[in-house]
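Progress report, Aim 2. The chain analyzed during this reporting quarter is listed below.
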Amino acid sequence: MKKGFTLVEIMIVVAIIALLAAIAIPNLLRARLNANEGAAISNVHTLSTAAQSFWSATSALPTTLNDLGAGSNPSYVDTTLACADATCTKNGYTYGMGGTGLAADFFAYAAPQTPNVTGVRSFCVGSDGVVRVDAAGSTPTTQAECTAFTAL
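Predicted structure tokens for the chain:
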């Protein structure tokens, strides 16, 4: 008597594994996207809190992300979130900040680095500290555009 598997048995096992992968992979990608969006909300809130701390120390709001990182002593946020570039990338989102240091025009934002892959929605916060969301994933360029987003 020969021992082993027949070709039909192996093909059935491969088909079952392929079916399970086809079901599981989209769910895993969606979970990753949701995790990125959750991290973006948290990071935007952190930027808002750091900006308020910066304002308490300097009587002005930051105008760049670097103002909250290496550009200040002490650093208010980690160097990944407050890089020296105009925008920083973390957890699949691109972060930026705008304004002139006055409360009337301060805002910080997070937009998906690769839309519909790393995230769908974009988030922003103004000087009022309210985190807002845009379901279309657009990037605000002014505080007025940010405040037009839906509050979370």
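The beta strands are 88-90, 93-98, 107-112, 122-126, 131-134, 150-151. Residues 7-151 form one domain. These observations will guide the mutagenesis work planned for the next reporting period.
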